[in-house]
């Protein structure tokens, strides 16, 4: 993406009513919507997050399927989720928001039990050992998610990385968390939730064209 195109998208994001771009200080010193997201959406419908939302395809897709839930995509790269934010505005989806910030601050963005469900879609598997702390299903991140999820809240991991799938599955089993569904190839096996099969990202389509299996885990943190 050219620098001029990026700058245009940054400027567009500043005008989009569904984009929130707090500073790190805003988040750490008392984020205004923490525990009060109903004031942003104008209702107290369940909140569903997509962490590392990229272009926002999953956030928008979930919002289209579930109009009775509020959907928030979080990513530090605003030029990417510009596409999802613009699509949501064009389609008049008032149950969509995009939040430009670091994912490790997620427990500063939402109150205790404020989130019903989390989606982690095609994250960087951070394979090198020294990158473990950045892996989005490591124990530290799971504790952050636990703080904001309501009791019984769901977490979904959809990835093309067998490494990420295996790491997460082993970790969940070792920590005694509740695995509701796990599959190494959701398009060849039955039982995956409809949202897993009905929504496909740009890169996911490329993986499928190349015959790469897509893995999926749904779980609860105990």
Q: What tags apply to this protein structure?
A:
222 residues; 10 helices; 8 strands; alpha/beta; 8-stranded mixed sheet; globular
Regarding quaternary structure, how should these chains be classified? single chain
Average pLDDT for all residues: 95
First-to-last CA distance: 42 Å
Number of helices: 10
Structure description:
- This protein has 222 residues and is an alpha/beta fold.
- Helices cover 38% and strands 22% of the residues.
- It is built from ten helices and eight strands.
- Strands 1-4-3-2-5-6-8-7 form an eight-stranded mixed β-sheet, sandwiched between helices.
- The longest helix is centred in the C-terminal third of the chain and has 14 residues.
- The radius of gyration is 17 Å and the shape is globular.
- The protein starts with a helix and ends with a strand.
- The mean pLDDT is 95.
